[in-house]
Design brief:
Layout: E1 2-4, E2 7-14, E3 19-28, E4 35-44, E5 52-58, E6 62-64, E7 71-77, E8 93-95, E9 102-105
């Protein structure tokens, strides 16, 4: 059971001083479409001189029972109809190639 506030820590390089990323946590069954468990959004308005950004996205709190055989997926997006676009200029996001570039923290409890 996912119970609490999931967090996603991201390290990446970007071409823009401002942008936004949305993290979608999904329940993926063996067959059929995935279902949204929760999501979170975070914007940045500054970056390091080399283009690096460290972003911490906290999703909405959730209590979700994951059935046996289902998997959890993390989808990252830079555009969502529910949120305003922080910059009218297009930008790129390149994840840093190391094991700490994307870290998902799931609050789990066992049954």
């Amino acid at each position: 059971v996912v119970f609490g506030v999931p967090r996603v820590e991201l390290k990446f390089k970007t071409s823009s001083d401002a942008g936004m990323l949305i993290a979608h946590l999904l329940d993926v069954p063996p067959e059929g479409p995935a279902k949204l468990i929760t999501h979170g959004v975070c914007s940045w308005f500054t970056r390091a001189a080399d283009g690096r950004v460290n972003l911490d996205i906290q999703a909405l709190g959730v209590a979700w029972r994951l059935p046996a055989g289902h998997k959890i997926a993390l989808a990252l997006d830079g555009l969502d109809a529910e949120y305003l676009i922080p910059s009218i200029k297009p930008y790129t996001v390149d994840f840093i190639d190391d094991s700490s570039a994307i870290y998902l923290q799931l609050p789990l409890i066992s049954r």
